[in-house]
Design brief:
The chain has 276 residues and is α/β, with parallel strands linked by helices. It has 8 helices and 9 strands. It has a single domain, classed as Alpha/Beta hydrolase fold, catalytic domain (Rossmann fold, 3-Layer(aba) Sandwich), CATH 3.40.50.1820. Helix 1 packs antiparallel against helix 8 and helix 3 packs across helix 4. The longest helix is centred in the last third of the chain and has 21 residues. 39% of the residues are buried.
Length: 276
């Protein structure tokens, strides 16, 4: 009965959601969070966003997506990782385990909000890796991934190459430096890349944060965990939803992406509710 109620009400848009910004305390920092509140949420979505240099290009589409969901009865929580955006903390001191802990703590907080509603983990780019990691550990009722890389290094490497390309524009001949020289420098000291101080640990650990085998499912149901999973590959995500800092900020038409994924969410959470 509960799942049928969700299926019927989810199509409405007269929900009047309220956006509440605040700071959520985590070890050594505070996460900037925005809760897109719905008076009687039929489900909740934790939006786990992109990496540092992609945050500014994905920010507006990410907010629009949260508002789209909230207007249809789905409460959303979006946030900035420790050391990024409006959150406190030193980026240089953070690691992928720090950001994975951010996800875990927010999920625990959502569980305490009550009443218990289906929870969807939705990750974008690096956030898709962190979402899939939590999901394969048993967190959440469904998983949606937009533009998931195979590893975190696939996110870091293009940003590093952009830094190198810009630097080499003003160098000639033997003055030009390659990737190996930048990595050697990174071993000695933090390296500024697109406004963030990277540590050598961040680069090393990026090879070990990979998309779990159980999450590499592009269809509706993940066969190993029997919970709904969907992947939207990079080439299906309109620019500038996932792009580096050299992208031109535009206002893409995301209506098709939003409508298609919302329809999948309603179906996925009905399936999840029926399995419980």
């Amino acid at each position: 009965m509960a799942s049928q109620r969700y299926w019927q009400v989810s199509a409405t848009v007269d929900i009047n959601p309220v956006e509440q910004a605040g700071y959520f305390e985590v070890p050594g920092a505070h996460l900037y969070t925005v809760v897109h509140q719905v008076s009687a949420p039929l489900a909740r979505v934790l939006l786990i966003g992109a990496f540092a240099s992609e945050r500014h290009t994905s920010y507006l589409p990410w907010v629009r997506w949260a508002r789209y969901l909230a207007a249809r009865g789905t409460e959303c929580i979006r946030f900035d990782y420790r050391g990024m955006g409006e959150s406190t903390g030193s980026f240089e001191e953070m690691s992928f385990s720090s950001w994975a802990e951010d996800v875990e703590l927010l999920v625990a907080w959502l569980d305490r909000r009550g009443p218990r509603q289906p929870l969807l983990l939705h990750g974008l780019e690096l956030g898709a890796l962190l979402a899939s990691q939590a999901f394969t550990a048993g967190v959440g009722d469904a998983l949606l991934m937009w533009a998931p890389p195979q590893s975190a290094n696939e996110v870091l490497r293009p940003a590093l190459l952009r830094r190198i390309a810009v630097d080499n524009m003003f160098r000639y001949g033997n003055e030009r430096k390659g990737v190996a020289e930048y990595l050697a420098q990174l071993d000695r000291e933090p390296l500024e890349v697109e406004g963030y101080q990277w540590s050598s640990r961040l680069w090393r650990d990026s090879f070990h944060l990979e998309l779990p085998a159980g999450a590499k499912v592009a269809g509706t149901i993940a066969s190993d965990c029997k919970r709904p999973v969907r992947t939207v590959p990079l080439d299906k995500c309109p620019e500038p939803l996932v792009k580096g800092s050299i992208s031109v900020l535009v206002d893409p038409d995301l209506s098709g992406l939003f409508a298609d994924n919302f329809q999948w969410i309603t179906t996925a959470l009905v399936i999840s509710a029926e399995r419980q």
